[in-house]
Amino acid sequence: MSENKRCAIFYVSDGTAITAETVGRSLITQFTGIDFIEKRLPFINDVETAQAAAAIIRNTPSDFQQLVINTVVDLELRKIIHSAGGLKLDPFNRLLRRIENNLGLKRDPGVGRTHGMSDSTSYNDRIEATNFALSHDDGVNLNLHQADLVLLGVSRSGKTPTCLYLALHYGLKAANYPITDDDLERMRLPADVMAHKNKLFGLTIDPFRLSQIRSERRPNSRYAELRKCQAEVSDAEMIYHRNQIPFLNTTLTSIEEISGKIMIALDLNKKLY
Fold first, then answer.
1. Which residues are recorded as binding ADP (predicted)?
2. Residue 199 annotated as binding?
């Protein structure tokens, strides 16, 4: 049996490197049979940091192929990075040249603009939405009139990280309500929650995976028992069906994809424009 190829992928940026990492991860998910190691190299904004980054890339173990996703703006710093070798990919340079040709304008390069606070209104909306998500986490506050959406689900099904993602990236006020043992026994949700039925979206998860996640938090507990997880998931899904609440299985789905599908299902994209 042959060993997998090995590749070291570096996300290099004069900003946070989040954009480079997002692009790179989207690309490498299309390949199987390769063992990737990933390293983010952010804030490469002078000769010293560029040389340090190049040294890290250059010292990659010889049995790894090098792949460099580089979004550094400054040409001199880019040359230093490129001197380290490996396959170099620039997700934006060729696209920017085509945009320049189409618009008849030259770009005005600036460091860190992708994640900068150029729009203070949008930034403040995201901060306010994040505070809302934190104060309406796990059913702490059932005053849901200001909520854009309310996520439902049994404990550890992915409600909180999804709410925070929606808040941080889109400025949506996302609350969540944990379906409790009492709710499952009665097979209905509280009236304060059902009053906002048009905002409700359910999350579900494979019971085996749920048991694993809960065992990491509270090992050898009834909370993590597979039989209990199976019963909770089955009953929660029955509640969704009875009340015609849309829901999604989060087991093999990223937060980004979960969020996108929720926004489509609840027609939330129009709130962003």
1. 153-160
2. no
